[in-house]
Specification:
The chain has helices spanning about 50-65, 115-130, and strands at about 5-15, 20-30, 35, 40-45, 70-75, 80-85, 90-100, 105-110. The protein has about 140 residues and is α+β, with helices and mostly antiparallel strands.
């Protein structure tokens, strides 16, 4: 589900010969909430943010979460960030370019069976790097 945030900014300027009113409108569409597949053990989220902005945020998220043995491979169409967390579980973050680079799909896999809570922490860290609200707010709905 996409959240649409619409905003209108009213800017009133007073000119010496009268009053002018300028209306500037726009819309911003934010990314959908993370979906988690228990069969695949993988969290998936598509960001409506350019791929080139999501990749550095994902790399920073891995460092922020203290992943060690960190391996980063970033290319024009996909990026792979792999490491181990404090519980010695393998963490894999894949960032895939979509819509000619205007969007990025992020797939997170933790351990052999997946870990919903740690996956959510990874997305929270990515969201923080992008200036978005955390995924964990959905637990309180």
């Amino acid at each position: 589900m996409k959240h649409r945030v619409s905003w209108i900014v009213l800017l009133a300027g007073f000119a010496p010969f009268g009053c002018e009113l300028i209306i500037i409108g726009g819309a911003i569409t934010t990314a959908a909430e993370m979906t988690y597949s228990s069969l695949a053990g993988e969290g998936v989220k598509v960001y409506n943010i350019p791929y080139r902005r999501v990749v550095p945020a994902a790399e920073a998220a891995g460092a922020r979460l203290g992943l060690y043995e960190l391996n980063v491979e970033a290319g024009e169409r996909k990026a792979l960030i792999e490491g181990k967390n404090i519980d010695d579980e393998a963490v894999r973050i894949r960032v895939l370019r979509e819509s000619e680079g205007r969007k990025a799909a992020v797939r997170v896999r933790v351990g052999p069976m997946g870990d919903y809570l740690y996956t959510t922490l990874v997305f929270d860290a990515i969201n923080e790097g992008l200036g978005l609200p955390p995924e964990s707010h959905s637990f309180h709905k």
